[in-house]
Specification:
Elements lengths: L2 E6 L4 H10 L24 E6 L9 H11 L3 E4 L6 H6 L1 H21 L3 E7 L22 H12 L5 E5 L2 E2 L6 H9 L5 E4 L3 E2 L2 E2 H13 L4 E4 L6 E2 H11 L7 E4 L21 H5 L8 H14 L5
Parallel strand pairs: 1-2, 1-3, 3-4, 4-5, 5-10, 6-9, 7-12
Antiparallel strand pairs: 8-11
Helix pairs in contact: 1-7, 2-4, 4-5
Length: 308
């Protein structure tokens, strides 16, 4: 039986890998649908996908959302579209909430009206970062930034039957991310400085997309933390990027967040490590270690001529 998936934000860093995973292709630097093993989820064998960029579907436009869903009648909507410019959100909270919260409300309304299962992609920024352990799905959110508050607003719009996926420190072959920033800087001669007091779990879109496809195809409802396993600081991560590409990791120096010049407008969680407890308790395999994801991504970027 054919399953219809609609993807918002389909040309973004995660969205493009979601489209690949739904087409049965292994996303660049990825493995095939890691949660259910090498064969992938059974539901992905016969899929029809409507992939919509923000230019094609602004989720803040309610009539357009309703029309798109009515016309395609998806079985599953993966809502990956979002306003993710974290620092810009601080200066423009109306746009952040219009896209991330009200836009999600529109997607929810359409999904309920036309009977589609909803998968909403959220963020580690819903937490304040003060926990001394990894955050569980049942911990109380307390965002410190406008971006985090707007994404939490989107979570609050989701009905009980939806799937909410929180993730963190996202990197992929498409778009801009810390891996590409680090490689661009490594091409120079200067020493590099990165904060060593922010800790998280780097997550690679190729692995994340496979997990999201699985959760959507199986309609696993509820809140899931989905990150590559293990954690590090931005300092440790950039060192690993340089080492993986054959550069000298000793060029990277640790600094504190307070030392950043200029300071970032949006506060970052000091600890945004997410415990993938719901996946573990549901008996689903862990995501691959972040070091493996990084190695695959670096290999992919090297094979593409490192289009940074």
């Amino acid at each position: 039986m054919k399953m219809r998936f609609m993807v918002t934000g389909a040309t973004g860093q995660l969205g493009s890998d979601l489209v690949d995973a739904l087409a049965g292709r292994v996303p660049p630097g990825g493995t095939r649908c890691s949660l259910l093993g090498p064969a992938g989820p059974r539901s992905v064998i016969d899929v029809e996908t409507l992939a919509l960029s923000h230019a094609q579907l602004g989720v803040e436009d309610r009539p357009s959302v309703l029309n798109a869903v009515e016309g395609f009648r998806p079985d599953v909507i993966v809502h990956a579209g979002a306003y993710t410019a974290v620092d810009a959100c601080e200066a423009d909270p109306d746009t952040a909430f219009k896209v991330n919260a009200l836009g999600t409300r529109n997607i929810v309304e359409a999904s309920q009206r036309y009977g589609a299962h909803l998968v909403y992609v959220s963020t580690d920024y819903v937490f304040d970062g003060t926990s001394t352990r990894p955050y569980r799905e049942w911990d109380r959110p307390n965002p410190r930034s406008v971006y985090g508050a707007s994404k939490l607003g989107g979570e609050m719009e989701c009905p009980p039957g939806a799937t909410v996926v929180r993730t963190s420190w996202v990197c992929g072959a498409g778009g801009n991310n810390m891996v590409k920033v680090a490689l661009r800087l490594a091409a120079g001669e200067e020493r590099l400085k990165f904060v060593d007091d922010q800790r998280g779990s780097p997550t690679f879109t190729a692995d994340l997309a496979a997990a999201i496809v699985t959760l959507g195809a199986e309609r696993l409802r509820g809140l899931f933390h989905v990150t590559n396993s293990g954690d590090t600081t931005w300092y440790g991560f950039v060192r690993a990027v340089l080492k993986c590409r054959g550069h000298d990791p000793e060029r990277v120096e640790p600094i504190s967040t307070e030392s950043l010049t200029p300071p970032r407008p949006a506060p970052r969680p000091a600890n945004s490590v997410l415990d993938n407890m719901a996946l573990r308790l549901a008996g689903l395999p862990e995501m691959p270690p972040w070091e493996e994801g990084l190695d695959r991504l670096i290999t992919t970027l090297s094979g593409e001529g490192a289009r940074l």
